[in-house]
Structure formats: C-alpha cells, structure tokens
Amino acid sequence: MHLDRARAWAEQWQRLRHLRIETRTVGGRVAGTNEIPGRVWVDSYEQLWAFLGVQPDVRTFTTLLEATRSRAPVVVDWMSAKPMEVLKHRDEWPRLVDTALWIEAYARPDMYVRQIDVPGVDTKFIERFRTILAALLDCLLPEHRIDRTCPPSDFAGRYLFRKKPAYVRFRRLSAGHGFSELAVRVPELAAAPPAERTVFVVENEITYLAFPPVENAIVIFGEGYAASRLQPLEWLAGKNLVYWGDIDTHGFAILNRVRRSFEGTRSMLMDRATLLAHEGQWVGEASPTSEHLEALVPNEASLYTDLVEDVLGRSVRLEQERISYAAVQDASLRYTE
C-alpha cells in the first residue's frame, strides 16, 4: 500500500555515508521480493563521529585531554565523564588548568583570591569560571584543603582563601581625645574592648550618625541583620548593651539574634507606647517575617505577635528615623542610668 514510501526510505539508508548497511529480503510470490535495510553497523568511533558531524569537537576534546593528561592526570577521568563541560570552556581551558595547578602548588590560607598569579587570570576570571574551577580543584586538592560545607559559589571559603574581613563601625558619644569614629576589624575589636560602659546598637545609618551625645557610651552601626557579626565581641556581655531597631517584624528578629548572643541586651524605643505615639509615621513593611522569636521578653513578644497578625493594621512598620528626636534624646539618657 505504501510501496513508494518504503522504496524512498530504503534508498535513504543506502545513501548514508560512514555506516555499513546490512539488508534483508522481504516479500514473496504475490508482491515479489525486495531488499530493505535490516541492520546498521558502526565499525569505528571515527565512523560514528563522521556520521554525527562532530569530528571537529572530537579533535578539540582529544587535544585538550592529552594536554591535560601530561600536566594534571588526576583530572582526566573527570574530563572523560564531562566532555561537553570541557568543550563548553575550550577557549579558556589552558588558563583554567593553569589556575587550578597554581592553586594546588602555591595557595595558602593567608592568601586572598586576588593573589593568584597566573598570566591572563584575575579575580573576575575566577568569579566567572568558579564552578568549572571548583570541579578541577575537587579532583586536584586533598580533602584537608577543601571545605565541602561551602558551595562552589563560595570559592574563597571552599578552598580556604582569606575572606574579606568584617568590620564594626562605632562612634564615641562624648567628647574626648582620639578618634570620634572608627571602623575596626571584628577580631581586633574583640581583643581590644572600648572603655565606655554603655553600648547602643542601632539599625539605620542616619540614626547612628545623629545619635545624641551620651556620657560614657558608644553607638555601633548594626546594619540590620549584619548585627550578627557582633557575636565574637564577647566583652559586650559585660556592658550595658542596648539594641534599637525599627518597630517591625524584622526589627524584632534582629533584636532576637542579638539577645541570643548577649542575654542581657535591652531594647530601646521598640514598645507599644512608642508605636502608638507615632501612628502618623507608620509605613508598610514590604516582606514581614513570622518566625518564632524565643528570646523576646513578654512585652516585646506581645507587640511582635500583633505585628505578625496585623492586629494594628496591615504590615505596620515604624522606622527608627521617623521617631521624634526628643524621644530619642530622652530614651538614650534613661538607658544609661
């Protein structure tokens, strides 16, 4: 019924190059006998590459494989398992191997990624190709030089390079000799506590800069959730520590984190009376949280629950810079008493 189509199909197979076609006889006395393709044989990889039209890719991969075999043989098995990844990075492959080998030979935990010294390689190159570099380094490096709790996206952390240091920025709130404001690396500040008795931690930068004068006190710019970096400052546990954040769900979440590290932390201007006194300054909180905050004291927890459940209005938020400055001055003095 479809004889012409069958003949065209058979002829199509016969015209194929690079493959060996084995035919078989079909038909009988009524329709006559015909030879049609029965099996297709590929006699060599070269025939298969030619049939698929990938001969240039195969030549490129083979060249890269052999070049890498002589320099980094432990990477070869990975390359054989991931040929398309290798071909995807064919233009950068020599520099990628150079970089991985340099890290294997010279990298130390006191180095920054910036100190990798390979021609044509800079930090932007490493950032762009960190995933493929991670695959090579996972083959090359011994286990004690890999922190597998860090993903390949955290290149410095995974391969034990130094990370950008964390700083704490603080101001002295009374006149005196020396600097009025400093930004100090966290480990150095942990080892050299300031003499002032009271420490205020605030969330907002302009609030930090405009914080009123207070004797025997400093104010730390907490930068929201970055306040978690204060945890190594163990001397804060012996200070009169006061946290002041926005009255919103995230403000209480940050307070909760600080208090988990320093149990004696008090909150300032994060109460229901302050919120209700500034109703005209309320705004909406874009993405409220509703996580359980176990370190809040009862009056804080009650207000937090009302904010989560929209008891006072939808996603109510009072930013600290919207609170009257007179209230700030009064509270800052009360909390040093």
List the helices and strands and how they pair.
Elements: H1 3-14, E1 20-28, E2 32-41, H2 45-52, H3 55-71, H4 76-81, H5 83-88, H6 93-106, H7 123-128, H8 130-140, H9 155-158, E3 167-172, E4 181-185, H10 186-191, E5 198-202, H11 205-209, E6 217-221, E7 240-244, H12 249-261, E8 266-267, H13 272-277, E9 283-284, H14 298-308, E10 316-317, H15 325-334
Parallel strand pairs: 5-6, 5-7, 7-8
Antiparallel strand pairs: 1-2, 3-4, 3-6, 9-10
Q: Whole-number average pLDDT?
A: 89
Structural category? alpha/beta
The separation of the N and C termini measures 103 Å
What is the molecular shape? elongated
Beta-strand content: 15-25%
Instruction: Quickly count the domains.
Output: 3
Low-pLDDT parts are none
Given the structure, what is the number of helices?
Answer: 15
Characterise this structure:
40% of the residues lie in helices and 15% in strands. With 337 residues, it is an alpha/beta fold. 24% of the residues are buried. The protein has 15 helices and ten strands. It is elongated. It folds into three domains: 3-46, no CATH class; 55-158, no CATH class; 167-334. It has helices at residues 3-14, 45-52, 55-71, 76-81, 83-88, 93-106, 123-128, 130-140, 155-158, 186-191, 205-209, 249-261, 272-277, 298-308, 325-334, and strands at residues 20-28, 32-41, 167-172, 181-185, 198-202, 217-221, 240-244, 266-267, 283-284, 316-317.
Could you write a compact summary of the structure shown?
The chain is built from 15 helices and 10 strands. It has 337 residues and is of the alpha/beta class.
